[in-house]
C-alpha cells in the first residue's frame, strides 16, 4: 500500500544533495492539508525565507514518480530564489527550463512547467 504522506523532508534532502549541491538547507518543505488548487507551491518572503508546500489531498494517491516530479519542480523554483534571488519574475523561463531539463536527463524524470492533476482539483 502507498504511504499517503511519505517523508517529504527526507526526499527533499536527498534531492537537494543529488541535484542542487546541498544549497537548499534553509528551505522549509511541508505537506499542506488544505491546499487543493495546485499540487505544489514555492513561496518567498522578506529576509530571504523560502518554503515549499505540497498538496496532501492532490498528491496522496498519486504515484511516487508524480510526487517526486512535483517536489523537484518546486525545488527548482526554490533553487533559483536562493541562488539568484529570482522570485519568478520570469516564471518558467530559460533558467528554470535549463534546470528542469538537466534533472529530467539525469534522473529519468518528466518534470514539466505545469502540474496536471485536474481530476483531483475538480473533486475538491
UniProtKB/TrEMBL annotation:
GO terms for molecular function: metalloendopeptidase activity; polyubiquitin modification-dependent protein binding; single-stranded DNA binding. It holds the Pfam family SprT-like. One of its GO terms (cellular component) is nucleus. Residues 6-124 form the SprT-like domain. One of its GO terms (biological process) is DNA damage response. Signal peptide: none annotated. SMART domains: SprT (SM00731). This is SprT-like domain-containing protein.
Amino acid at each position: 500500500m502507498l504511504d499517503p504522506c511519505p517523508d517529504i523532508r527526507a526526499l527533499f534532502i536527498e534531492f537537494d544533495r543529488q541535484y542542487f549541491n546541498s544549497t537548499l538547507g534553509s528551505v522549509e518543505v511541508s505537506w499542506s492539508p488544505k491546499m487543493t488548487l495546485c499540487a505544489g507551491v514555492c513561496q518567498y518572503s522578506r529576509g530571504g525565507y523560502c518554503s515549499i508546500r505540497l498538496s496532501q489531498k492532490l498528491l496522496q494517491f498519486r504515484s511516487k514518480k508524480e510526487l517526486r516530479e512535483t517536489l523537484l519542480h518546486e525545488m527548482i523554483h526554490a533553487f533559483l530564489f536562493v541562488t539568484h534571488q529570482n522570485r519568478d519574475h520570469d516564471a518558467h523561463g530559460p533558467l528554470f527550463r535549463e534546470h528542469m531539463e538537466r534533472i529530467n536527463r539525469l534522473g529519468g524524470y518528466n518534470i514539466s512547467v505545469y502540474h496536471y492533476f485536474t481530476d483531483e482539483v475538480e473533486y475538491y
